[in-house]
User: What shape does this take?
Amino acid sequence: MSRKEWFRLDTAALIFPAIRHHNWNNVFRLSAEMADEVDPDALNRAAADLARRFPTFFVRLRKGFFWYYLEKLEKPAPALRDFAYPLTYMPAKELRKSCIRLFYHENRIAMELFHSVSDGGGASVFFKNLLVRYIFYKYGVVTPPQGDIADIEAKPSPEELEDGFYRFAGPKPMGRNEENSYRMTGTHDDTGFKHLVTGILPTDELIKKSHEYGATVTAFLSGVMAESIMKLQRRRVPEKMQKPVKITIAANLRHIFPTKTMRNFVLAVNPGFDPGYGSYSLEDIVRIISHQLAVDLMPQTMSGRIMTNVAPQRNPVVRLMPRFIKDMAMSMVYFSVGERKGSINISNLGQMTLDESAAAYVKRIEFIIGEQYTYPNNCAVASYGGRTYINLIRNIRETELERIFFSRLVSLGIPVEIETNERE
Assistant: This one.
């Protein structure tokens, strides 16, 4: 029997197995609406091709004495008919079999991925390759390898498999000290149902309005979200007890450092403001967030943040600790530092593009991230074909945040079409 291929978890991936909970783990979703009904056989053939080209995606989570690791699957699990709401819980038993799910339903192809495998940036490249390979088998259309589309016959390069954090760690770690943020609460939905509200915006109108505020789309949407949370806090919390409002933004480090890694390569930054200092207009908030992002996303700043995460792995004492002790330590750090610093996540994949040969068969692409362990709302954004899809997910019954946020965009002159998976 040949020895099975396995991969070390990258630096960012180490935290996710350690903080899994019986009804929560870090899974995200990419989906595409196709031109006609999905052929599951063509989808499975496409997945089989990608398992050879992108081996780190078709893996299962395994436990070692010192660390978790990812073991390559002998073959991908067959695609399933989509059976429920997005991002149903992925239990440990399932992760031991596969860290990826492929779904189909009518015209929709969807992929759900455990975050230890990759981040949204790496997964979006993988997903585009899945779509063009599916289109090849379904329609016989060949998309040439260029940009994000890989040569399906080539072997993955060492750069695609690397832990980018190790390569770009700076000489000095950066401290983690920062103020805690306001945390939203609500009536928990005990059924486990994930409430999803999707706002669909014309991308050109969104870009135009962002530029009017002198900001990127991510900074502008973060500003509108921060203003919305500020209004929500004012309704719920006495003025003297109000806390800073900060937006956790997943920064794709591939835009800062030169790597094509398909593993995790993002870091979270938490720009925001303290309403205790006085009143802030939307212009003020967007300007604050834009300036903070400009500093946070400098290579020098990010290399220091990277080193903060890499340093413990280089410590010989930490390396020799049993895995269960590492799990406890990482959980303590995460729950004391990680989620307390932001009010909500915004993860923006940006513009998703496909070659003209494939784009005719793909009508829509969306990105959804799950809610966090200790706060109930999250936000994911992706643009495709001239439309931007903003997915707000929550595990509580209250809809206040969605109403305030999307109403504010409309008041700014951006038309918003709303869809929801809410049950009657």
Notes: The two ends are 54 Å apart (CA to CA). The CA atoms of residues 39 and 138 lie 7 Å apart. The longest helix spans residues 120-139. The mean pLDDT is 92.
